Amino acid sequence: MSEKFIADFKTNYGFNADFKAKSDIDFFLKQNQFNRVLIYHGNNKFEKIISFFINTIRNIVKSRNKPKIVIIQYPTVKSSLFKIYKKCINKNNTIFICLIHDLECIRLGWNTSNYEYKIKNEIKALNLYDYVISHNSKMSKWLKDNGAKSSVLNLNLFDYKVNLKKNKGSNMESGKMNSIVYAGNLSSKKSYFLYKLNQLEFSTVKFCLYGTNFEKNKFLNSSNIEYMGFYDAAELPTVIQGSYGLVWDGDDVFECSGNTGNYMRYNNPHKLSLYIASGVPVIVWNQAAIAEFVEFNNIGIVISNLSEIEEKVRNINDEQYKIMKNNIYELSKKIVKGYYIKNVINEIISDINLENGEKKDEV
């Protein structure tokens, strides 16, 4: 029987797993005998190195004879520091698993002069792990094509913790409407495409925006835009009202452009999980990595640009919409219980135990 840990890295500026995607992983795996290990590191190199050894001794190297599984949520600590951490405890039959939240070389470095250099460094960091949990098959292929040597598995969908007892259930039960929800950072620096929606002419579609940094002055003459306010991420599924949730990013309404737009070709936006937890079918870019998942599970509409929304929505009849809602509901029952992270971790544990000739250790 392996001991199981989630290693969370803490800095002087706060605990970096506070944002929802990481804290939800913590929550679901702690339900299943994973122990959370806090690893503090300060600002100077000496302090970081010493604190790594102290925390390793205190938190993990307690029972030297037992095999261990350590999950680290990525990106987190610098690879040079992780090497020290790994060297300190790897002698104790430890398997290291990297769960990717973001690939920074694509998210921030695409279309920059040192893009190849950033790719090389990121792959080098990921190759320190025995297993890497990727978002989806598109990201996994990119990793392998660029030199990833670790065993790579697909998460497929981020889970989303929400208290369904507090959910109004309106989105699970309501019929077809023409309001499009967009939730997230509404700043023009992050979601510039929103501030180009006035370039499109819609007669029946309305956009309902939830989130921070809404720049109201830029929407003064937009009758089809309504700001719905800001809510905590865990509360959002209980308040969102709309017929579809929009998964879009970048600088333009005609394609997902720029760094964040291009990133859609590889990542699973956490926004998708939010809409599923909220009971809302989705609208996604046809070149996004998640488009295949959306079509296969019949949970929404795939478009090439935002100008297609009105016609696409109009062509969905009541029966088709009801089927999508039912499919969303079935997925929502999974993600609010941590199905996807538990499933992929079980795959890894099964693989480890098969290699060792041991009995399967279920998560």
What do you see in this structure?
This protein has 363 residues and is α/β, with parallel strands linked by helices. It folds into two domains: 3-159 and 338-356, Rossmann fold (3-Layer(aba) Sandwich), CATH 3.40.50.2000; 164-335, Rossmann fold. It is built from 13 helices and 13 strands. The protein has helices spanning 20-30, 45-59, 79-89, 104-107, 115-126, 137-145, 170-173, 258-263, 270-278, 291-297, 309-314, 318-335, 339-356; strands at 3-11, 14-15, 34-40, 68-74, 94-100, 131-134, 151-154, 179-185, 206-212, 225-229, 244-247, 282-285, 300-303. Strands 1, 2, 3, 4, 5, 6 and 7 form a seven-stranded mixed beta sheet that branches. Strands 10-9-8-11-12-13 form a six-stranded parallel beta sheet. α3 (79-89) links the parallel β4 (68-74) and β5. 40% of the residues are buried. Residues 11-18, 166-170 and 359-363 have low confidence and may be disordered. It holds the Pfam family Gtf3_N. GO terms for molecular function: glycosyltransferase activity. Residues 6-156 form the Glucosyltransferase 3-like N-terminal domain. This is Glucosyltransferase 3.
